[in-house]
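In practice, a research group might receive sequence data for several interacting partners and want a quick structural hypothesis before committing to experiments. The following worked case mirrors that situation: the sequences arrive first, and a predicted assembly follows.
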Amino acid sequence: MQSRTPASRATGRPRSATADAAILAATREALVELGWSKLTLGDVATRAGVAKTTLYRRWAGKNELVVDAVAELFDELEIPNRGSLAADIEGVVLQFAAILARPEARSGLMAVLAESTRDDALRERIRTSIVERQKRLVLEGRTRAQARGELPPESDPTTVDLIFDVVAGAVIHRTLVSAEPADEQWVRAFTRLLLVGLGGAAG
Amino acid sequence: MQSRTPASRATGRPRSATADAAILAATREALVELGWSKLTLGDVATRAGVAKTTLYRRWAGKNELVVDAVAELFDELEIPNRGSLAADIEGVVLQFAAILARPEARSGLMAVLAESTRDDALRERIRTSIVERQKRLVLEGRTRAQARGELPPESDPTTVDLIFDVVAGAVIHRTLVSAEPADEQWVRAFTRLLLVGLGGAAG
DNA sequence: GAGCTTTCGCTACGACCCGTAGCGTAACTG
DNA sequence: CAGTTACGCTACGGGTCGTAGCGAAAGCTC
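A structural hypothesis for the assembly, expressed as tokens:
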């Protein structure tokens, strides 16, 4: 998850785990107060109570640091078992929306995504530490729905990717671009659209 | 569209329209070569062949400049009339994906969106100059589909916003986060999902 | 404990970019 | 012509970057 040397040496003074947590927390705090562009590593170091050099020993730069700081926010996501596919979708989308409503997630996530368009290593870091880990939610929801008979037992792997892009993309666009809350009403309408399509929904 | 004084004065030396175009083109060029974070206004000025002070007289900062530079890319969007709602959607989504495939759109758009989470004026600038102008495509497509009898003649205004978030969000997430091309195959699958929903599509 | 290794906090540094001020010149109006 | 505004250029203080060097601290092995 971090950029330390692959095999941790058995000898010498070990790195402080407390410092790691303090730095990541300070990064999120700075994201809230300053946003991405005005966030400086020197400021983060001061907030965390560590030296600037300590920070540079662990992370290559601002991008990598913010990815790790933001990734922790998404670890709490779980898909609830509410008895129906529609209810399960609504539940997980609301959780996702709640995370994106937090300012440290908003500015941090979009900024590192922007940087990742020009940095393949960074994009891979984002994919493995944030994006790909949440696809399990789609897989789990589909498995449950198939067991209930709500979805055909087919299993095209590209369909999972499509659904993930649609769900995550819609929520992100709603909250970060349109800047409107993804509240219960919106989530219900979105879930209905996702399940029955434009033809079945109110046009 | 730019940050000049509201009423252009009748007296004095007029601002060079050539310089405007050169600066915006230079900004896109710099976005391609350097990306957002390494783009400097001094460099843009040099590329455009103007003085740095000239640039600061017209734009308040990097954010506003990039918004204008990127906004021009989206003006070419049109929804084609292909005879069916599905074909119309596929056509406009492919156009949208083609724009997002360009590096100057990728890094520029995401970066200003990230900044807009902490700057209300910037978000409003993005909404009026980029986002809101493309909602006409959804409205136009729906009107056509209703005339063809493909959609009920209802007209819930929030549905348009929902569809826009779903379409734009999915394409953006596919191209910028998943980093996979929104090619014809993907667009066809997405359109089918949008029209008939999860129940009708292959699960 | 002694000795080794690595991390830590601290200071200092050159390099770069920021955003603005000041100046003389260019372009356009009445 | 005078008046007004934009332009190119130079220069500046202020801030951040990322790194180097130092002595001290914190572990591990013997």
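Before designing any experiment, note the following. Residues 10-14, 16, 40-42, 52-53, 56, 61 of chain A lie near DNA strand D (CB under 10 Å from a C1'). The radius of gyration of chain A is 20 Å.
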